[in-house]
Amino acid sequence: MALWGTSSPQPLLLGLLSILLLHPIIGIRLGIVRRPSPDIPVFREAPAFRNGDQCGYKNSDDIHVAMTLDANYLRGTMAAVFSMLQHSTCPENLKFHFLSAHTAPKLFSSIKSTFPYLNFKTYAFDSNRVRGKISRSIRQALDQPMNYARIYLADILPSDMGRVIYLDSDLVVVDDIAKLWGLDMEDKVVAAPEYCQANFTQYFTDAFWSDPDLSKTFQGRNPCYFNTGVMVVDVDKWRKGGYTQKVEEWMALQKRVRLYHLGSLPPFLLVFAGNIKAVDHRWNLHGLGGDNFEGRCRSLHPGPISLLHWSGKGKPWLRLDSRRPCTVDHLWAPYDLYYSSRSFLEE
Predict the structure, then answer these.
(1) Which of 7, 77, 89, 321 is 20 to 30 A from 296 via CA?
(2) What are the boundaries of the signal sequence (predicted)?
(3) Angle formed by the axes of helices 105-114 and 74-87, nearest 10°
(4) Range 319-339 average pLDDT
(5) Domains detected in the chain
């Protein structure tokens, strides 16, 4: 400090200027020093991922993945996309479709700067389409309109798209997503891991089960719980079968009679449970975010894993930032592209 006080600033400034002129800012990562909006996090640029020699480049080789886009969950979305690219044999064949409640120029810019080589499109989702149909659930986060956007995939996505993988933003894929894409759906509209050991009755109220007409809903079916955060959807069959309207009918009834408490999941169960293509459980190790009230830590289930899903209240980026992570959160951390001021100082 004494040197600064006694030295003339002019030689120092000239010295700094000469350094800049002789060594133009090669080592400064200008791409990182950007903040598109106060409410949009800053992310590191991901590396380019290229196809292996066995990959094709025809439209029929494309793998379509749909996700919602929201500033609050953007960090999770980035990690999910990064994980898929990193584990894919043919990453250039992945086509991402992001649904947003806004025109999303800031979100679009953030994705483009983080993944310069990503093949993606954004679609505006009109929240008013569903806002009047939402009933209050056990957790406020479940009542956001974007949680219901998956119901309208078939209406929003291009009409020539036959199939799409829908994924939540609080997960990472640790296997080649092409394996999930290539499954035989056996003429079903939806494919997802089923959990038949779960107590299915708990997803609906006594008012539902005590009504003689409503309780016949699952007659002739063997209904099992499935998580709607990981689904393969035949959007062509969805359109032809008018399934958006069928889900909306249950939502409308829920507004008059309390049939369930868990947001957008139960109407999916009412329409599809017992009539989906069952997928191996490895493709949705869900519940890592804990329960819907306290988000307690949970352990991994035994067996192989292709997808880790932090469904529930606890999200890995929030627990890591609070320095109170669960053990499983460290499995998410390697895919986190968030560029915090702390990580800037550590480099």
Answers:
(1) 77
(2) 1-27
(3) 30
(4) 96
(5) 59-346 (3.90.550.10)
